């Protein structure tokens, strides 16, 4: 009966049950569809009565199905919303956080120290030609110093017929700066350099910061003051001890290598190299070479397009990776480039 159909629809408690009721009543084989088909066979008087009754029944069932469907969907949505409630008082899961790599951090620290001393930043290409990397720096083709650089060469020459290589130092930026901006000059040039070499204190790719000052009347005293001032600022201590040794670079004359005293004791790994002040000759201490420097050779000033009788200058090149190691107490340079998050967080460079 109609009452029964309506109460079954009202009692359906999920959408699947409701759908099977729709098929049962209104589907092709459905009971109400069946009733509609019988109308044709009735005589006109009976049809006048039965027609509206059956159509009315179909309408009532259709409406009841729609109403029940809406009610069930609303209930389902309410249930989902209730179950998906977010408890804003719960602590958030901790997300891993990145941080600045020690090399980048030290590069930034050094750039800041030099900016305070009035140095601008210059750059040059990592893929260099042998003229800028060697020849212009007073290392002609057969110069023995070229062999000391363990250079990575490219198989092809460039359009000017020059051999191409990965720069072995940032010193070619000295030449590029002089040619590009003329004198006077006060720049640093930070960047990657490459040599075929690897052990605890050498990696095939490493970082240098070149410094170049060209002006009138520049002498060794300016160089010494600059190096002392920047190393004290960088290590944040006045008691660091430098050792200046006479050395040789084809592009400086005279040339000086600078060592800094560091301690081998303590530190996170038991024996980290760390600058703690004091001489490298003190007990538990040693010296580490941190930079090469000197007065710019007149041939180099001339190769840069300047008159060496008018302009003088000094230059230096420091190993950024070693400076990082000595400030933060790390003992193996190679770990800088392993990308091991455990190592980075051990030294406080990652969350
Ligand atoms: N280019 C030298 C090196 O890589 C360092 C240096 C730079 C020395 C400038 C003197 C002057 O070893």
Task: Label this structure with key terms.
single chain, 351 residues, three-stranded antiparallel β-sheet, 12 helices, binds phenylalanine, tRNA binding, metal-binding, protein biosynthesis, Phenylalanine--tRNA ligase alpha subunit, nucleotide-binding
Number of helices: 12
Helix content: 25-40%
pLDDT averaged residue by residue: 91
Structural class: alpha+beta
Report the uncertain regions: none
The largest sheet has its strands arranged as 1-5-6-10-9-8-7
Distance between the first and last residues' Cα: 72 Å
Could you give the count of β-strands?
10
Percent range for β-strand residues? 15-25%
Shape: elongated
- Largest sheet, described in full? 7 strands, mixed
Order of helices and strands: HHHHHEEHHEEHEEHEEEHEHH
How large is the radius of gyration?
Answer: 41 Å
Which molecules are bound in this entry?
Answer: phenylalanine
Could you characterize the architecture of this molecule?
This protein is an alpha+beta fold. Helix content is 40%, strand content 21%. It is built from twelve helices and ten strands. The chain has helices at residues 2-11, 15-26, 31-38, 44-83, 102-116, 130-133, 144-147, 172-181, 220-235, 298-303, 320-328, 341-346; strands at residues 120-121, 127-129, 153-157, 163-166, 185-194, 205-215, 242-249, 252-263, 285-296, 312-319. A seven-stranded mixed sheet has the order 1-5-6-10-9-8-7. Strand 7 (242-249) and strand 8 (252-263) form a beta hairpin. The protein is elongated. It starts with a helix and ends in a 5-residue tail after the last helix. The relative contact order is 0.11. Bound molecules: phenylalanine. Residues 169, 171, 249, 252, 292-294, 315-317 line the site of phenylalanine. Phenylalanine binds at residues 169, 171, 249, 252, 292-294, 315-317.
